[in-house]
């Protein structure tokens, strides 16, 4: 989002249009003890995140940081990771402001979305002066340089931003002039630069399913998926202002993109005068679509917004919760333990409703190996990595799924714990502390995903002693487990 310079674009939007299968298992999922009191915690109940855009220049404002640290679980740098900020001179990168935001967020257990790598706007002057093959190479070099710095650290990247016109044709930018394949090249370059991060296309005015721009982006994603171009998600900015408001077919848009095999996310949400009905409606549409993985509002308080005169956010300038905040929180708390609605195919293992069962302690059995998740030698030492082992039903293989989404062992004294958030992070046992790295979504597609990381419990092999880790969810047999009665 380029602050105030793009306000007029949103007035081009058309008016609003009108508009589980469960794995067999033996685990009871308890009801939530009480409604969550923050946006991030409420969203996490259904395996989603709730995020905000952060500006490095405001991190010295204690009211700002207190709200942001309390309420949100995902952060997007407002301007600090864009091309003009990260490569002010060709080949000379500057990550100081971006790193400031990244460090602030991760020190608080929050994840970070990268925004953005290839965009016609906010290019540094040297890039604006290039064209043709020289510009194409500069784009490739920029993607490699920025993604190399943040490799393995971010949840997602907006690889390409705002590449379409309102009628669904390609925007005639300097990047488009390098050849119609520039977006594909950007995504293929990004996948090579960081194989572990989710790669997203991000745009505005693509919320209305019947709108030309929405259909243009849809056709591109459909083409990319059919040809194996690496793309993992679509970001719908969801700026509702002036003539653009919540369309009646918004959920159709989300589910239609998701049906192509990509995640969807609401990435830059703000609404004129913070309409409670529109905020509740866009949130409900997301929780109704299993592959809608999260919502990000574009700023913390109204006074921080690029549209501050329209009071579009969930907190007023004084940091007070607005009625729209409550409307969003209520929807998130009402989502239950997993996304509602009809699930779409989910190769990335997004959380769905946990399976029913008979309750009590259970064994966690790998579908591929037939072996159980086991604490080696019945260890009670913090940091002991769990493994696969022949099922025998002893206490070091007895797990209980709690109302706080923990998997406990030894009668609840220790918890299944992720040692980190990146691919390959160890899954271990640790004294229960209630943190997000000890919370798990037991999904109806057979996967178990970490609330903090979004990654799935994973094994590389099937033999006794095979160590357990977390890895990007792919729904394959080595990530499928069933919880069965002892």
Describe this protein's structure.
The structure is a single chain. With 486 residues, the chain is α/β, with parallel strands linked by helices. The protein has two domains: 39-334, Alpha-Beta Barrel (TIM Barrel), CATH 3.20.20.80; 360-485, Trefoil (Acidic Fibroblast Growth Factor, subunit A), CATH 2.80.10. Helix content is 23%, strand content 20%. It contains eleven helices and 22 strands. The protein has helices at residues 39-44, 62-71, 83-86, 96-106, 125-128, 132-149, 182-193, 212-227, 250-258, 276-287, 323-333; strands at residues 49-54, 74-77, 111-119, 156-161, 198-203, 233-236, 239-240, 263-271, 292-297, 362-366, 372-374, 384-385, 387-389, 400-401, 407-409, 414-418, 427-431, 440-442, 448-450, 456-459, 468-471, 481-485. The strands form six sheets. It has an eight-stranded parallel β-barrel with strand order 1-2-3-4-5-6-8-9, surrounded by five helices. The chain has a five-stranded antiparallel beta sheet with strand order 12-17-16-15-14, with no helix packed on it. A hairpin with a 5-residue loop joins strand 18 (440-442) and strand 19 (448-450). Helix 6 (132-149) packs parallel to helix 7 (182-193) and helix 10 (276-287) runs parallel beside helix 11 (323-333). The longest helix is centred in the first third of the chain and has 18 residues, at 132-149. The chain is globular. The chain starts with 38 loop residues before the first helix and ends with a strand.
């Amino acid at each position: 989002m380029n602050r105030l310079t793009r306000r007029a674009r949103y007035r081009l939007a058309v008016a609003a249009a009108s508009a589980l299968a469960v794995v067999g298992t033996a685990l009871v999922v308890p009801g939530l003890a009480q409604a969550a009191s923050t946006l991030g915690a409420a969203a996490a109940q259904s395996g989603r995140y709730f995020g905000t855009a952060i500006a490095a220049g405001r991190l010295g404002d204690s009211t700002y940081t207190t709200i942001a640290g309390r309420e949100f679980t995902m952060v997007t740098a407002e301007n600090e990771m864009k091309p003009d900020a990260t490569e002010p001179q060709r080949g000379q990168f500057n990550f100081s402001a971006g790193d400031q935001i990244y460090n602030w967020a991760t020190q608080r257990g929050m994840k970070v979305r990268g925004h953005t790598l290839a965009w016609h706007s906010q290019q540094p002057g040297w890039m604006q002066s290039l064209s043709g093959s020289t510009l194409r190479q500069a784009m490739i070099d920029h993607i490699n340089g920025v993604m190399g710095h943040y490799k393995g650290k971010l949840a997602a990247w907006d690889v390409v931003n705002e590449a379409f016109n309102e009628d669904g044709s390609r925007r005639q930018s300097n990047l488009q002039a390098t050849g119609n394949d520039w977006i594909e090249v950007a995504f293929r370059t990004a996948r090579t630069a960081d194989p572990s991060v989710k790669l997203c296309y991000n745009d505005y005015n693509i919320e209305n399913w019947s709108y030309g721009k929405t259909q243009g982006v849809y056709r591109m994603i459909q083409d990319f998926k059919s040809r194996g171009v690496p793309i993992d998600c679509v970001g719908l900015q969801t700026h509702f202002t002036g003539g653009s408001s919540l369309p009646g077919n918004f959920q159709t848009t989300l589910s239609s993109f998701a049906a192509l095999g990509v995640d969807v996310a609401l990435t830059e949400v703000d609404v004129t005068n913070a309409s409670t009905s529109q905020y509740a409606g866009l949130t409900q549409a997301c929780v109704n679509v299993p592959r809608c993985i999260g919502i990000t509002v574009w700023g913390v308080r109204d006074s921080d917004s690029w549209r501050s005169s329209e009071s579009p956010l969930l907190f007023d300038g004084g940091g007070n919760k607005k009625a729209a905040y409550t409307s969003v929180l209520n929807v998130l708390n009402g989502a239950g333990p997993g996304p509602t609605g009809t699930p779409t195919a989910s190769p990335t293992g997004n959380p769905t409703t946990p399976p029913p069962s008979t309750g009590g302690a259970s064994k966690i059995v790998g579908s591929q190996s037939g072996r159980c998740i086991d604490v080696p030698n019945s260890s009670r030492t913090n940091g002991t990595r769990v493994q696969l082992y022949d099922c025998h039903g002893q206490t070091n293989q007895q797990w209980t799924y709690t109302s706080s989404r923990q998997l406990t062992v030894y009668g609840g004294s220790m918890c299944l714990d992720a040692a980190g958030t990146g691919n390959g992070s160890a899954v271990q046992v640790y004294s229960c502390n209630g943190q997000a790295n000890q919370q798990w979504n037991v999904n109806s597609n057979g996967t178990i995903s970490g609330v903090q990381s979004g990654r799935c419990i994973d094994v590389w092999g099937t033999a006794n002693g095979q160590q357990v880790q977390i890895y990007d969810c792919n729904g394959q047999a080595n990530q499928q487990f069933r919880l069965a009665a002892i």
